[in-house]
Amino acid sequence: MGGSLALALTCLACSPGPAQAAVIEVGVDAYKVNGGPAETAAWDVAERLAMAKDVAIVVMNPKANKGTVQILMQNLETLKIPTLFTKKADYDVLLKRGFIKPHPAP
Description:
The chain is α/β, with parallel strands linked by helices.
């Protein structure tokens, strides 16, 4: 019995924890990363995520400019950053139901 418990605890300790993911809110003409200050340079946002080896969850506000979203999408794709795009209303539902649990990189 003791061996089984030790094995179970070892398996739990080795299982992966929550994956890191930065939340990028896209507004009319700016981006907010993890609730921080607004930024207008999509390349800087994408480059920072690439350096942190972070995953991106892009949350598009209802009034988000299509061009602002497109530029960010192209930069994330260029830097090969895994990305999930969602609308603000859907993001809130996904968070509430536990489908998305963002954990920003330190």
